[in-house]
Design goal:
mainly alpha; two-stranded antiparallel ribbon; 6 strands; globular; binds L-captopril; binds zinc ion; peptidyl-dipeptidase activity; glycoprotein
Length: 627
């Protein structure tokens, strides 16, 4: 989604993927409340005695003002993302500037209640208010404006980016969507390398803007009392910032053996296919050969990785294409999954206002997002849907955001968010784990459910997306945390990026990179300023949710064969958790759905257990790893 500047729940506007942000509060604050609140703020400035009632009144007014401003920003951002031009960027950056300046003002005022004894709920809301912005600006209005302009520009540069090759009449320009398709389908290493390098020409001009943005937002975080923006970003998980980073590493260590086994097997298969000159048998895998522009998910090279006798149980790309479904039909199928669980259908305006396909005549930000424009009913997705398995899954991902946004819309503004941002990313993915052969047969996309002898093929296809993603999900924000806390300086941005890519993913750039490149900027979430740790969390959480929902549905078989389609009991369990929004610390929401209060990688490990056994057997005479 696009989240704006507010990290706040879903909503806002600036950078995210679950976007939208927020909605507007349905009730206006009473005049009395508004008055108390500004008196409260004034009292605070004068060092006057504040009370708990002042804090509550302040919060009520603050949320009402933010909700109103967020709605304005959401509409401006929708325009800037669906009609990229100077004017839409101008309008968006003005709205963003106003929103940021209000959020900063309120966050600073919130600090005045720091020493007051308050009930847990009030304290929680004040903390959330302080942490609401993804990119806080300092109080200086000039810097707020500059930050807003940089954000709009970066987003526009990414969205309108293309790669043109050839001269004169022979010139051919590729959009990122087209290049993504070729990266998935081409098996010509030279062509893949050309596209890989070509797309990365979009980002060097972003680098000075990005550097400046880091400077301004760090100053903003410091004014709010954080050491730097890294600490602020890591403080949003109901635990200390360092504990959060340690928990991420801890989860990674649990799933690493699975990743390493997959890496070893995939490298061996790519080596068989392309030879030692292209794929070093014991080294890092060249990043252009994995079926994805960022080598973040590898499912598109299933055909190269599978054994000859390992028939895929089905080819979802072909099933979608052969079914004759339109792009919008793909969304209808996704909606039907949610309604089968007892969710209300999407509103008519969703169908009227969403962007399902890439408009022919203008630049848009194609990166998929889900929006909540008014916190009432105006929810939308923005995609450039292709008739592929990847986009079919992404449709479910985005709808997960929208159904979440809709179900918590009556919470106070600050609680209209996921229990943490990983929850928001995990919902639709958890649903998509129920896209099993049994389900595909039920909805008429497939004739026969394959026997369990095909399970390894199915699990391999899933692992190439789900397991391959894990180190990427971790390293993106490891890079940003280092950039924000000054450990990595601009002169080393690209080097630090590749060090993490190599160490965590065991992949390498197909051609030498230098500091004249800015490869992080070629990934949406960097110019889009969407925090990325959420996707790592979501990969772990979605399997926890899936396991819990399958139990609620009374499913007995292996996790990878379970589908909760049509199961009201599972739907109710999911809805009860979603409706909490961010009103409680995330472990409470986790407990509501799974009975556990922590992140637990055992669900993803259980799910892939049969594949792990297979990979260990395959790898037994291979030398794995990539030192
Ligand atoms: O950005 C997204 C979603 C929107 S929130 C399409 N994802 C990450 C990515 O594409 O890099 C989903 C998976 C990871
Ligand atoms: Zn998302």
């Amino acid at each position: 989604m696009k989240k704006l500047a507010l990290a706040i729940a879903a909503t806002v506007v600036f950078a995210g993927c679950d976007s939208g942000e927020t909605g507007k509060e349905t009730t206006q604050p009473t005049n009395a409340a508004a008055q108390v609140s500004s008196e409260a703020a004034q009292g605070a400035q004068n060092g006057g005695d504040l009370t708990a009632a002042d804090a509550k009144a302040f919060l009520e007014e603050a949320q009402s003002r933010l909700a109103e401003m967020a709605e304005e920003l959401s509409h401006a951002s929708w325009l800037a993302s669906t009609y990229i031009n100077t004017d839409s960027q101008y309008v968006e950056s003005l709205a963003s500037e106003r929103f940021t300046s209000l959020a900063v003002e309120l966050a600073n005022e919130a600090a005045q209640f720091d020493d007051l004894q308050l009930d847990a709920e009030t304290r929680r809301q004040l903390t959330m208010l302080k942490q609401a912005l993804v990119l806080p600006a300092p109080k200086d209005p000039k810097l707020t404006a500059e930050l807003a302009q940089i954000q709009s520009k970066l987003q526009g540069m990414y969205g309108s980016g293309k790669y043109c090759t050839g001269e004169g009449d022979a010139e051919k320009c590729y959009s990122l969507t087209e290049m993504g398709r070729l990266m998935a389908e081409s098996r010509d290493p030279e062509q893949l390398k050309d596209l890989w390098v070509g797309w990365r020409k979009v980002s060097p001009p972003m680098k000075p803007l990005y550097e400046r943005q880091v400077e301004i937002a760090n100053a903003g975080a410091q004014e709010l009392g954080y050491d730097n923006l890294s600490v602020m970003w890591r403080s949003k998980y109901d635990m200390g910032a360092d504990d959060f980073a340690a928990d991420m590493d801890n989860q990674w260590n649990k799933v690493k053996p699975l990743y390493k086994a997959l890496h070893c097997h995939v490298r061996a298969k790519l080596n068989e296919r392309y030879g030692d000159d292209v794929v070093p048998p014991n080294g890092k895998i060249p990043a252009h050969l994995l079926g994805n522009m960022w080598a973040q998910e590898w499912g598109n090279v299933y055909d190269v990785v599978k054994d000859e006798d390992m028939e895929a149980p089905y080819d979802l790309d072909a099933l979608i294409q052969d079914s004759g479904m339109s792009e919008k039909d793909m969304v209808k199928v996704g909606e039907k999954f949610f309604t089968s669980l007892g969710f209300k259908p999407l509103p008519e305006t969703f169908w009227e206002r969403s962007q399902f396909t890439k408009p022919r005549d203008r630049d848009v930000v194609c990166h998929a997002s889900a929006w909540n424009l008014d916190s009432k009913d105006d929810i939308r997705i923005k995609m450039c849907i292709q008739k592929t398995a990847d986009d079919f899954i992404t449709v479910h991902h985005e709808l997960g955001h929208n159904f979440y946004q809709r179900i918590y819309k009556d919470q106070p503004f600050l609680y209209r968010e996921g229990a943490n941002d990983g929850f928001h990313e995990a919902v639709g993915d958890a649903i998509a784990l129920s896209i099993t052969p049994k389900y595909l047969k039920e909805i008429g996309l497939m004739d026969e459910v394959p026997g369990s002898d095909k399970d390894i093929g199915f699990l391999m296809r899933q692992a190439l997306d789900k397991i391959a993603f894990l180190p990427f999900g971790l390293m993106v924000d490891k890079w940003r945390w280092q950039v924000f806390d000054g450990e990595v300086q601009p002169g080393d941005y690209n080097k630090a990026w590749w060090k993490l890519r190599e160490d965590y993913q065991g992949i390498q750039a197909p051609v030498a990179r230098t500091e004249a490149d800015f490869d992080p900027g070629a990934k949406y979430h960097i110019p889009g300023n969407t925090p990325y740790a959420r996707y790592f969390l979501a990969r772990i959480q979605q399997f926890q949710f899936h396991r819990a929902l399958c139990e609620a549905a009374g499913e007995q078989g292996p996790l990878h064969r379970c589908s909760i389609y049509n199961n009201e009991a599972a739907g109710e369990k999911l809805r009860d958790m979603l409706a909490m929004g961010a009103s409680k610390p995330w472990p409470d929401a986790m407990e509501a759905i799974t009975g556990q209060r922590e992140l637990d990688a055992s669900a993803i490990i259980d799910y892939f257990q049969p594949l792990m056994a297979y990979l260990e057997e395959q790898n037994k005479d291979r030398q794995c790893g990539w030192e």
